[in-house]
């Protein structure tokens, strides 16, 4: 695959399956790539602009090529990639019981505003704005967030906890959806530790059948800005200074929103071993 754009243009690629750039070239002032798997064997991915580069991979990253960004704040997120899961390889994988999910086979999902257990006022809207895409890519029709939000607002409900307290039967009557996604944010923001600083977003979710009230699936995911970092060999003073600078930079640029994108993708991706089942609009529907 080859794609090159001129000044002021950008490349935005979102692929549910495998994006194969083997021997190819991505070159643009701004790059935003999201894929189930990314193959970059002998390929080149280059951003010439000054903005942050965003690459989110839900499965396997084969990067035997070159990835370059003009600025230092290059961001590369592995959502359940083989590299990100090295620490988990020593533990047995816990498989989800999909019996209720397979019996229900929902076609449409209503995403409710996440409950926010953090001190950040941005957490709920940041996560909510990024939860639709992975569900749609998994093959489900998702009730538009704007429609959901305005409907509750017109009925005097604006607090996530109050909205989530609405009965499943009532939600089905109002929106006509087959299932609803209930979620909770437990971490959101940048924290300073002894020799490091990290932006962390952690959330959990459960999918509920609106006809029966049964829980079809539940999961939890987290992402942080230090994934893949290696501080070995650095002095204590150097690490302390770096941590302080990172905390200021992450707070000023609100990096939490970018981390929330990775968390949402990890939490709501479809596929084994613990993801959602593929929906009816996916070519993989019925194969899991």
Order of helices and strands: EEEEEEEEEHEEHHEHHHEEEHH
Percent of residues in beta strands:
25-35%
| Number of helices, where a helix is a run of at least 4 consecutive DSSP H or I residues | 8
Q: What characteristic shape results from the CA principal axes? A: globular
Percent in helix: 25-40%
The radius of gyration computed from the alpha-carbon positions, rounded to a whole number of angstroms, is: 20 Å
Low-confidence stretches: 70-91, 230-236
Number of strands: 15
Q: N-to-C terminal Cα separation, in Å? A: 29 Å
Q: Give the biggest beta sheet.
A: 6 strands, mixed
Coarse structural class? alpha/beta
Average of the residue pLDDT scores: 79
Provide a quick synopsis of the model.
The protein is of the alpha/beta class and 288 residues long. The protein has 8 helices and 15 strands.
Describe the secondary structure blueprint for this structure.
Elements: E1 2-4, E2 11-20, E3 25-28, E4 31-39, E5 44-47, E6 54-57, E7 61-62, E8 66-69, E9 75-78, H1 99-104, E10 108-111, E11 115-116, H2 123-128, H3 132-137, E12 141-142, H4 145-154, H5 160-164, H6 168-175, E13 179-192, E14 197-209, E15 215-224, H7 236-253, H8 256-268
Parallel strand pairs: 1-3, 2-4, 3-5, 4-6, 4-7, 5-8, 6-9, 10-12, 10-13, 11-13
Antiparallel strand pairs: 13-14, 14-15
Fold and architecture overview:
With 288 residues, this protein is an alpha/beta fold. Helices cover 25% and strands 31% of the residues. The chain is built from eight helices and 15 strands. The strands form three sheets. Strands 10, 11, 12, 13, 14 and 15 form a six-stranded mixed sheet that branches.
């Amino acid at each position: 695959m080859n794609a090159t754009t001129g000044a002021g243009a950008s490349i935005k690629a979102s692929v549910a399956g495998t994006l194969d750039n083997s021997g190819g070239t991505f070159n643009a002032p701004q790059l935003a790539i999201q894929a189930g798997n990314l193959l970059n064997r002998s390929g080149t991915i280059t951003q010439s602009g000054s903005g942050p580069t965003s690459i989110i991979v839900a499965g396997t990253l084969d990067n035997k090529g070159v990835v370059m960004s003009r600025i230092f704040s290059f961001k590369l997120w592995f959502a359940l990639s083989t590299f990100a899961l090295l620490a988990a390889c020593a533990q047995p994988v816990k498989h989800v019981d999909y019996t209720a999910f397979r019996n229900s086979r929902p076609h449409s999902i209503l995403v409710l505003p996440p409950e926010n257990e953090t001190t950040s006022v941005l957490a709920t809207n940041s996560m909510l704005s990024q939860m639709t895409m992975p569900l749609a890519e998994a093959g489900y029709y998702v009730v538009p967030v704007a429609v959901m939000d305005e409907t509750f607002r017109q009925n005097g409900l604006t607090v996530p906890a109050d909205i989530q307290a609405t009965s499943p039967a009532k939600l089905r009557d109002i929106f006509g959806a087959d299932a609803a996604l209930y979620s909770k944010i437990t971490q959101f923001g940048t924290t300073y530790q002894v020799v490091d600083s990290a932006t962390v977003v952690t959330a959990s979710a459960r999918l509920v059948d609106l006809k029966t009230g049964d829980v079809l699936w539940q999961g939890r995911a987290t992402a942080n800005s230090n994934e893949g970092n290696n501080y070995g060999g650095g002095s204590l003073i150097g690490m302390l200074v770096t941590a302080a600078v990172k905390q200021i930079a992450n707070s000023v640029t609100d990096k939490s929103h970018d981390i929330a994108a990775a968390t949402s993708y990890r939490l709501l991706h479809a596929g084994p071993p613990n993801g959602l089942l593929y929906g009816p609009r996916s070519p993989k529907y019925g194969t899991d």
